[in-house]
Design a protein that fits this description.
With about 190 residues, this protein is mainly α. About 75% of the residues lie in helices and about 0% in strands.
Length: about 190
């Protein structure tokens, strides 16, 4: 949507040229193959790194919080902790889009809390951390390996695109609200014990 509105400009030809060089395939077909590779091998590879985080967040933290808090509390506390865990990387490395830091941290924080809510919902409904692992891996693979490289880096795109922009933040919040509307709020142990 950002590409069609002009809020972020696509660079499909440049992406295809890089994919063509990296994969040694004909121009035009390289993008399709790259998308297929990201959707399969990229997500599988991403599961290995996401698993490390998810064991802590959804494997231990969410169930422990669910013993004491409502779903809203679980979402907020786990999301704030997950956001705080990323802050050193955002502040001290190039893991940001280049927008002013207060803006970056606000969008990332809201988006991470919402993504944490979706992940907590999946974990509590399935009684497994694997749906959260696959969601986390898919998010990282598609955003970092496809959407970001397909988007031209400009002053404006720093505000709208990437993991730190308004676009993904709003999308993730809307996805969480739709999930809660469609699937309901999962009861936590704390609510069941009352």
């Amino acid at each position: 949507m950002l590409w069609t509105t002009g809020l972020a400009r696509p660079q499909f030809a440049a992406f295809d040229a890089r994919a063509h060089t990296a994969l040694g395939l004909g121009a035009g077909s390289a993008t399709a193959v790259a998308v297929g590779l990201v959707a399969t091998l990229g997500v599988i590879r991403g599961c290995a790194s996401a698993l490390g985080e998810e064991i802590g967040w959804r494997g231990f933290l969410v169930p422990a919080l669910a013993e004491r808090l409502s779903f809203t509390g679980v979402t907020l506390v786990s999301g704030i902790i997950w956001t705080a865990w990323h802050i050193p990387s955002i502040l001290l490395t190039d893991y940001n889009a280049g927008a002013p830091m207060p803006f970056t941290l606000t969008c990332f924080g809201i988006g991470t809390i919402a993504m944490g809510g979706i992940s907590a919902w999946l974990t509590l409904r399935s009684n497994s951390l694997w749906p959260a692992v696959v969601l986390h891996a898919s998010h990282n693979a598609f955003v970092q390996m496809l959407f970001d490289p397909m988007t031209m880096e400009t002053r404006q795109s720093a505000y709208w695109a990437t993991e730190f922009g308004i676009g993904i933040t709003v999308t993730t919040v809307v996805a969480l609200l739709l999930l809660l509307w469609w699937g309901g709020v999962p009861p936590t142990r704390a609510q069941l014990d009352r």
